């Protein structure tokens, strides 16, 4: 099932992100993709193993809430340098938003090593009718 209205709202943070820089911590950012299509890219957070990214939304026109979304964490090394891969994890928006699984995902390197965690401090899947009703009642108050 694909949705054609509404949004996926996410508030993510990282913990114990692997230090990829020689004399400092990482400068991590994440991308979210589905079927190879980029859904969102966060800004990088300088010199930290525990980044907290600002809340963001993804329109449901861009994704299938019943299909896997891959989160890839990178270490930013400057605009003229290639970012280092820290690790990947994945989730299914409908499953994660329902609370059926834990809100912490382990970042795995290409070799399968644990390189930290991504924690969902908030995840909301708002379908179009829910969004219309919420907006309608907010306008009436």
**Total domains:** 1
Give the helix level as a range of percent. 10-25%
Beta-strand percent range: 35-45%
Series of H and E elements: EEEEEEHEEH
Q: Briefly note the structural class of the backbone.
A: mainly beta
**Average pLDDT number:** 90
CATH top level assignment: Mainly Beta
CA-based shape: elongated
Strand order of the largest sheet: 4-1-8-7
The count of DSSP E runs of length 2 or more, i.e. the number of strands, is 8
Structure description:
The protein has 141 residues and is mostly beta strands. The chain has a single domain, classed as Immunoglobulin-like, CATH 2.60.40. It contains two helices and eight strands, in the order E-E-E-E-E-E-H-E-E-H. The strands form two sheets. It has a four-stranded antiparallel sheet with strand order 4-1-8-7. It has a four-stranded antiparallel sheet with strand order 3-2-5-6. A hairpin with a 2-residue loop joins strand 2 and strand 3. 28% of the residues are buried. The mean pLDDT is 90.
Descriptors for this entry?
four-stranded antiparallel β-sheet, Immunoglobulin-like, mainly beta, 2 helices
SSE layout and pairing:
Layout: E1 6-15, E2 28-34, E3 37-41, E4 56-59, E5 69-75, E6 84-91, H1 93-98, E7 104-108, E8 114-127, H2 128-140
Antiparallel strand pairs: 1-4, 1-8, 2-3, 2-5, 5-6, 7-8
